[in-house]
Amino acid sequence: MADANDVPTTLFLHGGPGLSAIAERTRLVMPCPVDWWEQPRAHEGQTAPYACLLREAEQKFTSMCAASAAPIRLLASSFGCMLARHLAARFPDAISVIVLLAPTFDPQASYRRFAATLLDTSPSPALHAAYESCKSNSATAAFWDLVAAILATPRFSDSYWSVGAMPARRQFAALMADSAGFDFPTYRLVLDDFLTTPPPSGPSPYRGPVTVTVGASDPYATLERTRAEVHRYFPQAQLSLVDAGHFPHLELAPEFWLPHDFAEQ
Q: What is the DSSP letter of 177?
């Protein structure tokens, strides 16, 4: 295992927005030094919170490059994959490998699928109405109505995990509760700005290796849909399906989602 004083050569980009890297920092044992970066929280009155987050990610990345004097590995989860996509476009020659875990490049489509998953097991007139409205209306107001209906569904967060992941689910919930690991205002502010930001067009200028892991029980996406979204930006990406939910890296050992030669890249 790498010495704790080694300069980090891997940047972890956690999900959310507004989440935390505490679960990964606490639980994951990696083959090389990792910077478990805590993304800054947004605040009311901030101009373009998503754009601000991208700039913060750029500053973090360039500082790591300067400190390590070597290409950086990107390890990203869920919404953090948006930041990885941005960094790959900005600094294609300064990245050695990208690992995407349960990427969500289209939050509106992801939440519609999440709602459909919940409706299969927890029928709710309010959730059904919000789901139907969001299917036919791309306005942000309809999206937030759907998010509110999902959050009002009892035990909705259980759907983030596979059936056999009870220990991981409990540990994650405890960490989030103890650390205030999720900031909803940041989530709302950053996503509001993201939803009005045009997505990048065409493939990324980054041409290095990209691996993508999708959980078979992920409520946000299927392997096929993820492949179509990822290949739009990273046509070289290699995808794999594992027996997990939305957090495959918290349910499974690294050999299931991390390239075997990750530390050498």
A: H
